[in-house]
Amino acid sequence: KQAEKAVHQKKEQSKTKCRKARRRHINLVAEFNRRQRKNIWLETHIWHAKRFHMVKKWGYCLGDSPTEKCYRACYRAMTNHCLLQDLSYYCCLELTGKENELLKQLARICSIDTGLTFEEACCLSGRFEGSLNLYQADRYPEDMLGPVTFIWKPRGGSENRQLWIWMHPALKQDILRELKAIFQCTEPQDIYIPEPVTTSIQEEEQMDVVLSLGKKRKKEDKEGERAVPVKKIIGDGTRDPFQSYSWISQTTGIVISDRTMEILRYRLIGPLSHSVLTETLKAASLQRV
């Protein structure tokens, strides 16, 4: 009996013993996908995780406060250089439809008494970003929904326009519900059906298959590139993965799409922000066919 007990208590040997095996790309991606099932990571998550205390808010894993005393460095960057912030956790809603119909209904949830509106000429052309406060339809100055920022896509010669609205994750559900109500978007246009999430046992079996391919794995990377898992983002922190992400109105033709975690957003602060952008982004050469 003691011998049988010792056999049952014996720990199974780890399938990835050395650090080199754990740091392989396929194993890292599989581990990152497993750890993102409950809280979504931003594109800059690993950089922040090494330097910040992470918190879990609004369905995301975000950097809260730095682990080192870098407040003076951040202040110096804001005043003299450039400081970058990752705002990709902000939610983005895309409205597509005729410009007159969009402006007509959007005027019901904002007021000219508070400042700029969606009809402002500088913002309507798509050159500048605007910010305003949204209210429930025809309820101003009561029942405020919250502040948002927006930007129009420049006109392309068509009647249809595109409008992107960014808001805080805590405000997304209320604003989305109000937009769907004023535009009468009730029928889902597309329903996202995610791939079944592999269990830990299946992931371990996949790792064993990859490790058993051979010792010289570098030669097989190029040919077996398709076998390497890709980082998956199932849904986002504010939407269930099995819910629809696009709605259409049969009467007005307006389409509301949830672009959260599809459009990354960064904020540059400091006098050298423009210089950093000009050095980073290069204009593409247009080739006429």
From TrEMBL:
For this UniProt entry, what's an example GO CC term?
nucleolar ribonuclease P complex
Record domain Pop1 N-terminal: where: 4-97
Please give one Pfam family short name: POP1_N
The biological processes this protein is annotated with in GO are: tRNA 5'-leader removal
This chain belongs to the protein called POP1 protein
Which taxonomic lineage does the organism of this UniProt entry have? Eukaryota, Metazoa, Chordata, Craniata, Vertebrata
What gene is this protein a product of?
Pop1
